[in-house]
Amino acid sequence: MNLGICSITRAELIGAVEGLQLAWELGYRRVNVQLDSRCAVEILQRQQDHDHRDSAVSHHFQELMQRDWEVSLTHIYREGNKCADYIASQGHQLPLGYSMFPITDTTLVSWILYDTLGLSEPRLVMNES
What we know:
GO terms for molecular function: nucleic acid binding; RNA-DNA hybrid ribonuclease activity. It comes from Linum tenue. This is RNase H type-1 domain-containing protein. This protein is mainly alpha-helical. It has two domains: 1-76, Nucleotidyltransferase, domain 5, CATH 3.30.420; 79-129, no CATH class. Helices cover 44% and strands 9% of the residues. A two-stranded parallel sheet has the order 1-2. Helix 1 (8-25) packs across helix 2, helix 1 (8-25) packs parallel to helix 3 and helix 4 runs antiparallel to helix 5 (106-116). The longest helix has 18 residues, at 8-25.
């Protein structure tokens, strides 16, 4: 989905909401939402706060979570979800709105396999002390 110009955090929040809505419509009732933005995860885990610019999106996410299903929300490093990272990197080339990726996209198929096998790249994390 190409959202046009918006913040990375807003894109993550909208992606979480749209993904949950799609999972519900497809009949999935056990869903693990993984976001590589710790900020977005914190916003979605907060109790309703009406004084931030993404409160409507956050509220919609909370409403979706209240449905009769099991939904978990976790932070994952970008390196742990190469498929989503690849799709996001292609977004600027897509028209505004929803787009479907062909299963013949060999790079996407490779990243799906990579993620399914639980592979990831090492990441250097430095303590700020």
